[in-house]
Each structure stands twice: as C-alpha cells, then as structure tokens.
Amino acid sequence: MWITAKSPSLAELEQMAHEMFAGLPDDFRELCEGLIIRVDDFPTEEVMNEIGAETEFDLLGLFQGVGLPQQSHDDIARLPNMIWLYRRPILDYWAENDETLGHVVRHVLVHEIGHHFGLSDEDMEAIEAEAEEDALPG
Fold it and tell me: For the chain, which residues score pLDDT lower than 50?
C-alpha cells in the first residue's frame, strides 16, 4: 500500500476539507453560509508576521474575515469570510501524530470555523464529537 501512496495535492486536500465540512452537523453548516474554504501549501509571510509564527509549520489553518459575533446588519459590503487550511503543516502534523488525515483536517476546519462563530474550545469539541459519531458506520 505505501509503495503507491502519495500525499494529497492542494486540490485533493481541498476536496477532503469540503467533504469533512459536509459531514458536520446540519445546523452548524447552515450558519456558515457564504464561508469560503481554501487550501494553500503554507501561510503567506504577511500572515506569519501578523500572528507571530516562528516557522511556516506553526499554523495549520486560519480564519480571515469578520466573525459572526462582530458582524452587524449595518456593515458595509466586505470580502467574504474565508478559512485557509495549510497543506504542508497539516501533513507534517499528521505524520507526527496518531490520527487519520481526515480527522486532522476536520479538527482544523472546526477550529477555524469556531473562530468565525466565537465558540469556546468545549463547543468545538462537542461539534467534532457529533461529526465523528455521524461518520461512524452503522
């Protein structure tokens, strides 16, 4: 199996992220209307400087935009909210830990969406647990 295995491309990881998103609870996904999910190999230098990252492997994902708690109906038109997943740091994390790649991608996705909603770590863990239960066969 490992002889022919290869790491997922940017497009394949983005497809996986969209599949993981589709497996999240319906009420949670409905609140994410208009949210854009993108995958890149690494964060930009600007992003790294902004968050104070020491290396390009320090950041697995990023929420960019205005979170729901800070939005107002009186807001002027703005760019859509986006979640960035960073392929190479995610693959590095996956290689060093005992989790499936799908689990890692879902975890990062939920964590970044959690920033969109202003959720607590406990809320995000509950959403992940529900998604995990729904993904189990049977």
Answer: 69
18: Cα within 13 Å, side-chain hemisphere: 10
Widest CA span of the chain, in angstroms?
A: 56
**Spatial distance between the Cα atoms of 51 and 53, rounded to a whole number of angstroms:** 6
By the 8 A CB rule, do 2 and 48 touch?
no
* C-alpha gyration radius of the chain: 16
- AA letter at 135: A
* pTM over 0.90, yes/no: no
The encoded tokens of residue 16 equal 């996986």
- pLDDT the model gives residue 59: 94
> Do residues 58 and 29 touch, judged by C-beta distance below 8 A?
no
> Where are the strands (E) in 30-93, listed by range?
36-40, 61-64, 82-86
> Using an 8 Å Cβ cutoff, are 107 and 94 in contact?
no
At residue 19, the pLDDT reads: 94
* Residue 23 dihedral angles phi and psi, to the nearest 5°: -85, 0
